[in-house]
Amino acid sequence: MRLQIDVVKTQGNFTLQAAASVEGRRTGIFGQSGCGKSTLVHLISGLLQPDRGEIVLDDLTLFSSVKKISLPPEQRRIAIVFQQAMLFPHLGVKANLLYGYKRCNTANRRIDPQAIIDVLQLEPLMKRGVNRLSGGERQRVALGRAVLSNPRLLLMDEPLSALDDALRFQIIPYLKSVSAEFGIPYLFISHSVLEMQLMTDRILVMKEGKITEETTPDQLARNRMAGSQTGYINLLTLKNPVMESGLYRYPWGTGELLISNGQPGESSLFELTSRDIILFKQHPEAISARNLLECTVRELFRSDGRVGVVLAVHNETLVAEIVRSAAEELDITEGSTLFAAIKASSFRRLN
Amino acid sequence: MLLLTPEDIQAILLSLKVALTATILSLPLGFATAWLMVFRSFRGKMLLEVLVNLPLTLPPVVIGYFLLLMLGRNGWAGKFLDAWGIQIVFTWKAAVIASAAVGFPLLVRSIRLGMESIDRQLIQASRSLGARWFDTLLTVVLPLSIRGILAGSSLMFARSLGEFGATIIVAGNIPGLTQTIPLAIYDYASSPSSTMMALSLCIVAVAISVLVLFLHEMLGRNLEKKESL
Question: Which residues in chain A touch residue B228, judged by CB atoms under 8 angstroms apart?
Answer without folding.
Answer: 129, 131-132
